[in-house]
Amino acid sequence: MRRRNRLVTLVFSHFNEKARWALDYCGVDYEEQRFLPVFSQVGVMVATRGRGGQADEVSTRFSTPVLVTSDGQRLCDSTDIARWASKQAMANGADPLFPDDEVRELVERYGRGYGADTRRAVFWHAFRSKKAFTKMATANVGPVQALAFRAMSPVNRPAMRKLLEINDEAYARSLAKIREVVEDAGRRLERSKYLVGDRFTAADLTFAALSAPILLVTRDEGYSATFPSVDDFEPDGRELVDEMRRSRAGKFALEVFRRHRHSRAAESAG
Fold this sequence. Notes:
Number of strands: 4
Strand order of the largest sheet: 2-1-3-4
Order of helices and strands: EHEHEEHHHHHHHHHH
Shape: globular
Distance between the termini: 32 Å
């Protein structure tokens, strides 16, 4: 019996949403193993037989997502997973997510910096909220894992702050970079319907997925996990989310979720 593709995720991570989205859009069947921080590292160790993936400037060897394909491949990067999914769609005659070098370069640029900055921004605000992490645990995984995560919170929170560099100075730098990327995306959208040309590609998928933390995209709006409620943030956090949602690029990201999160590449090809 042929095994199913298996996706190991840190459930609320936007990099993981990027991988889920690419697989769903390209019509790839998979089962997802959803974890919270710390537990996700154990999931990666099991999936990679203890070897982990390849660390880069925004992740460690034991970061998610990890896709174990039905034929035994282990893909340990969201862009690699999206490229693999696109190839599966191309084999069935659908439009690829990566049609040209401009798309590939933009995906790489967003993944290298923007994703880490939006992650830092949402965690900086979430760490100031007493409710945010409790809600993210109980809403995203089963009761046993959620209870264990909450029990480990006194240890996990300082470790996450250090690992992800969650501090005032780094937050200020990330916020400035986020605004630069959002403004650049807005200018691109003045010239074309999508970020690269007039059809949906991996550039749009990546930008929307990696923008999700600063937009606090909800499940009803298409996100596959639960972020904190904007009401759980301090006033400055609520103002940031409102600013991003009002921007041209923020509105575009929300529209991309609405139009394409649950569409299929085969529909575009038809």
